[in-house]
User: What shape does this take?
Amino acid sequence: MKSRLLFYNSISPLIYQATTIICGFILPRLILGHFGTEVNGLVNSITQFLGIIAFLELGVGAVVQSSLYKPLADNDNIAVSKVITSADKFFRRLGYVLAIYVIAMLFYYPYLVKQNFSFMFTATLIVAISVRSFAQYFFGIVNRLLLLADQKAYIQYIAQTLAVITNTLGCYILIAFDCSVQVVYGMTSVIFFLQPLAIHLYIKKHYALNRKIHYDVEPIKQKWNGIAQHIAAVILTGSDTVILTVFSSLVNVSIYAVYYLPMSGSRLIIMSMISGIMALIGNLWAKQDLKELRKVFAWTEWLIHTGTMLIFTLTAVLIVPFVQVYTHGVSDANYIQPLFGILLVAANSGHCLRLPYNIMILAAGHYKQTQHNYIIAAVINIVISIIGVKQFGLIGVTLGTMAAMVYQIVWMAWYNSKNFIQWPMKNFWKQIATDIATSVLVFILSCNIIIPCDGYRDWIILSIKATIIAVGVIILVNSLVYREYIIKLKGCVYNMYKKLGGGRQRA
Assistant: This one.
């Protein structure tokens, strides 16, 4: 049963992420081509400013999920109901705060961009985009966390995949009929409002929850100790656009958003690898099955590091040729920024390299113990980014993220080694050295095949050549350093192929 759930929770996010990546390339290009660079920058800026409200989530989402592992493992419906009821109360209050924040934003944000757009144009766009956030806090978050903790993430991923496809088709039709950007994003909000509503109905039908249950003792331990982790996560993933809006220009916001498209796709691929693993690690920690936990963690660390090096090194090689093709015909800004692209890739690869250690911290519920690490990382990112953007523009905002990520990766690896599974730091440094070696070799060899791309056909051919080189180098290097994992990976692939082949023979 566990292996089946892990399979479902691994395949469904891959399908969702692939759909999100494809649709994520299509929709922004439609916005960019139809409405222009500044409107595209405005949309991304508003989205990030609305994301600031996520500060108020205070990391409670992660704490809720970790609080659900044990009662779900024990089939304790009363304890589960208490956690869900407490979480519901918190996020509904957050929804009311979001409403106040949006009203305030209607008054102050239009003046930040008043030289580019009228007050009414900006205000109506804010309203259109914000509906999606309301749906998240009133209907979506708590139910999503329950499914994640119960190793049923595949249900929400199916619903999200359908919503993404429907949204892309709807936006394409509206843009084809020359509708305003407000109408386009208003429809997007409605579609993504229906998705959490469907999940809510599923939870109501399949879980025996008492959402009105009373409790004397707070069921979510360390509810307020997740604040540092969450603030750091929001800063590390969302502060760049806000800093560019305040200290630079909407043109730079748009350029950043275009380069971030393939970056977000790369991150989604890696994140999809851990969706099922995190719940498994949380379950093993709750049962204190440390022997099995060490095996799972070792495999997880190698898999995430190796996958990150493969995906992000390819992204570094292909990102500028992609942007060249993607922005063909857009002449109101200079989108060819090779150094910025490489630094952005490096900064975001750090976000993924820290995942195995962050997963363990969250699964164990060590929020209070790790607060200072997240606070320091947040301060490093903000200070260096603000100083850097004034001196170096787009490149400057990546420097802060890179510095914060390097600090967090090393600190988290050390904390895991000391407090959870006694994972020696020499294993970590060995993995980092392997990462650097493979990345440098792939980049050097791939640079020799880079050619000007006149269309997607040229870019796809270039991608295939670069992928062959990258896979070959990674297999070679890891066969020398991590031979046992390569053998294990080959076995997994062979077993999957055998099962698929056996299924066709029986059919």
About this structure: The chain has a mean pLDDT of 82. The longest helix spans residues 250-287. The chain is about 85% helix and 0% strand.
